[in-house]
Amino acid sequence: MVGTAVDEPTQMQSQATVVPPRLEVAEDRRGVAEDFGQLPSEISVRDLDFFYGKEQALFGNTIEIKKNRVTAVIGPSGCGKSTHIRAYNRIFNLYRDQKARGEILFDGANVLSSQTDLLDLRRRIGMIFQKPSPFPMTVFDNVAYGLRQHYRLNRADLANRVEDALKRSAIWDEVKHKLNEPGNALSGGQQQRLCIARAIAAEPDVLLMDEPCSAIDPVATAKIEELILALKSKYTIVLVTHNMQQAARVSDYTAFFFQGRIVEFGPTTKIFSNPAEKQTEEYITGRFG
Amino acid sequence: MTRSLRLGDPVFRVLATACGLAVAVAMFGLAGVLVYNSWPAISGLGTSVLTTVAWSPVDHQYGALAALAGTFLSTLLAMVIAVPLALVIALLLVELVHPAVARVVGTAIEMLAAIPSIIFGMVGIFVIVPFIQDKLVPWLLTTPLGGLPGIKPGPQFQGGGVSIFTAGVVLAFMVLPYITAVSRDVLKMVPQVTKEAGYGMGSTTWEVMHKISLRYANSGIVGAVFIGLGRALGETMAVAFLIGSLFTSLPRSLFDPGTSIASLIALTFSEATDKIQVSALIELGLILFLITVVLQIIAQAWLRRVQRSTGGRA
Amino acid sequence: MSTVADVRRAPPRRSVARRKATDLVIKVFAWIGAWFGIAVMAFIVWEVVMRGAGALNVAFFTQPTPQDVTSNAGGFANAIVGTLAITGVAALIAIPMGFLGGVYLAEFGRNGRMATAVRMIANVVMGVPSIIVGVFAFAILVKPLHHYSGFAGSVALAFIMLPVMARTTEDILNLVPNEIRESGLAMGAPRWKVTLGVICKAARGGLITGATLAIVRVAGETAPLLFTALSSPYWMTGLFGPGGFFGGPVANLTKTIYDFSGSPYPHWQELAWGGALVIIIAVLGMNILVRLLFQRGKEW
């Protein structure tokens, strides 16, 4: 589609100027013209501030995470990318001195409010961590963990869903004979896919992935990237990564963070080929960070 | 200067090594002396020590069963109370409180370990025993629990104050700090990521604790329990004050008096004049020694497992 | 695609309220448990203070143990002196040996087979009941010589202290970073100078803590003294002879407390509580003191 002008997206506001996503030519990898403004948002963040004790780490973050899309979060180390997504599932609440302020709207309610049921929130927003962290139990029990915890299922249903989750995580064939072995007997890449299976088995709406491939070898990384593309159709994915090529490969939208602020946010192709901000350009071309 | 370099180091090394080996020598020396001195009893009495109930030197009876039973029951009661208590306290220290609070609470519990056994015994006999005798047991007997077998104290005894129960309860608080400290150390070794992953799945604190942390640390917890067990078995003074000195029969009730191996030795050793009696007492000591050594070895093995699974020395 | 597709998005949910309730109950138990543990500790200290404070007058610290049950006189002075002597000699034996043993484990043995064995044996010995150690000391020092002695008591206490001191020293020395070790050696100093001078200076706080705690721990022991030093109603009279340290039973605090608390005379019982108070103050006081002064003793 050529030259489709897009209306000023009304929900997008950020610290710096944001370029309304203008869909150029069919250089868009996925070949689908998207009207950012019309896409349903899974998570809307408004003016998110974050504090480690007295130190402020995030400054007025505002961003829209669109449903069934992969949003990549990039930026140099320490820029606040992990901190930002860890606000979505309130995992930061484990630590006394970490506080967040602002609005994170998910399914109509502000996640940061004290009324939020954390158990349910975390059922619907799953998280994959940098270091693969299978629980100290069998492969089967790992995947069944969320299912057993949140749902009432008979054994047959449970087994079906575990198998389903493992299949959808592209690891079923490798572990189908190992279901009763401990989760940490698998290789690093397999463990991470196991963690993904564990997360999706519980039927979340969103998957937060915090640098899921940084502790894994390149071959396994490729598998996980493929997986992310496949999972996109069912889940909304937010992917923090320090690997720009990865962001370019798998994501639809990219947010560039710097020192706790969102410098630029837009379609991935745009960010990587024609960024609006100078800082973005410098980061992408490797001049810093 | 060269002189000292040549002499100083080898001498130092030999000295240090000798002292290190002294520990091992001491242990084997202890074992050897115990065996040597209990030999007359071992050869003279054979297995009857382990099969006879009554310990009555007057009648030339040297049975350790009553003592073994008392040791076993009081220790069991102590562990039943102490282990769950220690685990929830460890949970609190690791997950539920601010590190500064954890330090204070932990230190307070640790002080419990520093209180000498004899003081537990004294407070036990002057304060706890009357309470149990005058308040607890009469109350217990009015409840349905009072009808259960093994609860009502024998009428010929003083009403349950000086008893296996009292010894077990006081013992529980003597071992509590050890089990708590080791459990806490072991629970702290559960990687933060794994716990976060648990919370991230929407688990409550207790769910993360018992489905993930306890499973992760279970070898260590087992090791902690064995350490507590070893201490409880060897506890002498407090138990001697509180368990009574009934050497001649097996306890019929939790609130009957009894005896334990350690307290039997403590209470009768100095009056023992008969050679066989002394030797038999030392044989009892040997038995206790062997039990605690085996337990310690098992505990060490379990604790090493934890260190290995988390990679390297903790 | 799975066959369960249509059911998948909505399986029946488990009760969140129930899970939260269980979580709350456990948390409440944990708090109750912790408070209970602390309460027991406070209670014990309280009882000892209440019952023993009245006995602590000048007489307590200057007069020997009473033998006349009718008078109100007497103190525990000889017992205190005895305990100081017995514990002191035990420390003289065990602290240097234990320290050097710990040095062996930390500096020379490290991961060798012999060191691992020694370490394991030390751990095992630490778990041996103290009464067994008393029996051992009886067998080697009392029986052959046909008399009790304070020295036998010291040997028993030293036996208990030795592995504790060795392992504590090892742990403390292991905390000293390797860089310090290496830079000391790199300057060409002999091993023993580096160890004693540099490393021990760096670990001084921990070592003092360890030694103090080891001494204080055995000072409160009763069982090992039951058949070694026994006790005596008199002052210790020198080193040898029936009243001497090496020659006969020596009054000591713990055994005296044990004897007096079992007596039927209220005044004697009160004295026993006084003795208990002295011990509690010494033991808990030293514990808290070393922790405060040298906080690296134990990390929470």
Task: Write a structural description.
The complex is a heterotrimer of chains A (289), B (314) and C (300). Chain A has 289 residues and is α/β, with parallel strands linked by helices. Chain A is built from ten helices and ten strands. The longest helix of chain A has 14 residues, at 155-168. Chain B has twelve helices and two strands. Chain C has a single domain, classed as MetI-like (MetI-like fold, Orthogonal Bundle), CATH 1.10.3720. Chain C has 300 residues and is mostly helical. At the B-C interface, helix 1, helix 3, helix 4, helix 5 and helix 6 of B face helix 2, helix 4, helix 5, helix 6 and helix 7 of C.
In short:
The complex is a heterotrimer of chains A (289), B (314) and C (300). Chain A is an alpha/beta fold. Chain A has one domain: Rossmann fold.
CATH fold field value of chain A: Rossmann fold
Task: Indicate the radius of gyration of chain A in whole angstroms.
Answer: 19 Å
Number of separate structural domains of chain B: 1
Protein chains sharing the most extensive interface: B-C, 89 and 91 residues
Would you identify the CATH H-level superfamily of chain A? P-loop containing nucleotide triphosphate hydrolases
Task: Kindly report the CATH topology of chain B.
Answer: MetI-like fold
Sheet/helix structural class of chain B: mainly alpha
Brief descriptors of the model:
heterotrimer; A: 289 residues; alpha/beta; Rossmann fold; six-stranded mixed sheet; 32% helix; globular; disordered N terminus; C: 300 residues; mainly alpha; MetI-like fold; 12 helices; 69% helix
What's the SSE blueprint?
The complex is a heterotrimer of chains A (289), B (314) and C (300).
Chain A: E1 41-52, E2 55-66, E3 70-74, H1 81-88, E4 98-106, E5 109-110, H2 118-124, E6 125-128, H3 139-150, H4 155-168, H5 172-175, H6 188-201, E7 206-210, H7 218-231, E8 236-240, H8 244-250, E9 253-258, E10 261-267, H9 268-273, H10 278-284
Parallel strand pairs in A: 3-8, 3-9, 6-7, 7-8
Antiparallel strand pairs in A: 1-2, 1-4, 4-5, 9-10
Helix pairs in contact in A: 3-4, 3-6, 4-6, 6-7
Chain B: H1 2-45, H2 48-51, E1 55-56, E2 61-62, H3 65-96, H4 99-114, H5 117-142, H6 164-188, H7 192-200, H8 205-216, H9 218-234, H10 237-242, H11 261-268, H12 275-309
Antiparallel strand pairs in B: 1-2
Chain C: H1 5-8, H2 16-52, H3 58-62, H4 77-109, H5 113-126, H6 130-142, H7 150-175, H8 178-186, H9 191-202, H10 204-219, H11 253-261, H12 266-293
